Amino acid sequence: MDRDLPSLMPKARDAQHLTVLRYFHEVARTGSIREAGDNLNVASSAISRQISKLEAEVGEVLFERLPRGMKLTAAGEIYSEYVVDSLLALRRLGSEIQQLRNMKRGTVRIAAIEGMIGSFLSPLVSAFRQEYPEINFQLLVASAADVTTQLLSGTADIGLAFNAPALDKIEYRLRIKDPVMAIMAPSYKLSTVEQFELREIAKCPIAIPVTTFGIRNLIDQACRESKVPMVPTLETNSIEALRAFAKNRDGISLLHTYAVRKELENGELIARPIRSAALTGGTIDLCVLSERLLPVAAKEFLTLAEEKLTGAYSI
After folding, report:
1. Contact call for residues 109 and 78 (beta carbons, < 8 A)
2. pLDDT digits over 150-201, tens only?
3. For the chain, percent helix, then strand, then coil, each to nearest 5?
4. Phi and psi for 156 in degrees, rounded to 5?
C-alpha cells in the first residue's frame, strides 16, 4: 500500500456507507459472507457486492477469497481497525444522545469467565437494573483469552477474566489478587491438611480447567517451575463441573476462590493454599479497551463493578 491511511477512509457521513461498514465488520468477524448474511438478515449476494464496491472505493483488496471463507489482507487489517473504531464511536454517540434526552436506555455488553457469573455478575446486573430498569445486558461467557478478544473486536464493552493475558490495547481497571487453591469437600480425606505442596496435589485425583483458561496457565506454569507432572482425573471447560467434582468428594479441584465463593461461605466446600509462587499470583482482572470512551450505561456499570470488587477484596 503506497497511499496513507486517511486516503483509504471513506466519508462516514454517508448513511449507506455506515451500513457497508457493518457488513465489512461482520464478514471480518465471522470470516464468512454467508454467516455474516445470516447474522445481519441480509442476502449474501448483497453483502458480496458491497464488499467488492468498498474494495474498489479504497483501491485495495481487503479480503482474501479462500475456499473456506474470507480472510483479511494486510490492508484489510488496517481498515478493520478503522471500522471497529468508527462503529464504537457511533454507538457511544447514540448512547450519549439518549442520556441527554434522559431516556436512560442502552445496552451493556460484558464478556466474562464462567466463574464470575453466578457469584458476582448476576447479582450486580440485578442491582444495577433496579436503579436503571431500561438498561439491557448482553453477557458472553468466555475463556480468559477470549474475553480480551471480545474487547479488541468491539463485541464487548467490559471484560472480566482470571489472569487475563497482557496486551497493549487492554486497560486493566482493576487487578485483584485471588490465588488458585485446592478446593474440596469438608469431609474429603485430605481436608485436615492446612497447606499443600504441589507434588502432594499431583498424587490426588484432581480436576483442572482446559488450556484456554487463565487458571490453567498458572497451573501449567507452577508444574513447570516445580518440575511436577500433573495428570488430571478431570479436565473440563466447565466451572460447574469443577465445583461438582469437589462437592462429590471425587477429589480436589484447582480453582480461584471467587469461583466458589458461595460454596465456601455456606460450608459446602473448603479451600486450602498450595505452596507455589505461580498459583498465589493469580488475579481477577476487570478490563476495557484502552483509550476507548465507553457508552454511558457501560461506564456506570464499570464504576459499580469496581466498587463491588474493591469492597470484596483488599487491593
Report:
1. no
2. 999 889 999 999 888 788 889 999 998 999 999 999 999 999 999 999 999 9
3. 50, 20, 30
4. -130, 150
Q: Residue 11: what pLDDT?
A: 44
For residue 36, give the C-alpha cell: 455474516
Nearest-5° Cα angle at 157, 173 to 221: 55
Sequence-ordered list of residues with C-beta below 8 angstroms from that of 282, at least 6 positions apart, any chain: 162, 163, 177, 178, 179, 180, 214, 215, 218, 256
Fold of the CATH domain 180-280: D-Maltodextrin-Binding Protein; domain 2 (3.40.190)
Task: Give per-residue pLDDT as tens, 34-57.
Answer: 999 999 999 999 999 999 988 888
What is the C-alpha separation between 202 and 30, in angstroms, rounded? 40
- CA–CA separation, 5 vs 20, rounded Å? 18
Span 262-285, average pLDDT: 93
Contact criterion met (CB below 8 Å) for 145 and 162: no
Which residues contact residue 188 at a Cβ distance below 8 angstroms, ignoring those fewer than 6 apart? Answer: 246, 249, 251, 252
Residue 240 identity (one-letter amino acid) = E
- So what's the architecture of 104-176+283-312 in CATH? 3-Layer(aba) Sandwich (3.40)
Vertex 150, ends 63 and 160: CA angle to 5°? Answer: 170
DSSP at 194: S
Residue 219: pLDDT band (50, 70, 90) is very high
Specify whether the CB–CB gap between 251 and 134 falls below 8 A. Answer: no
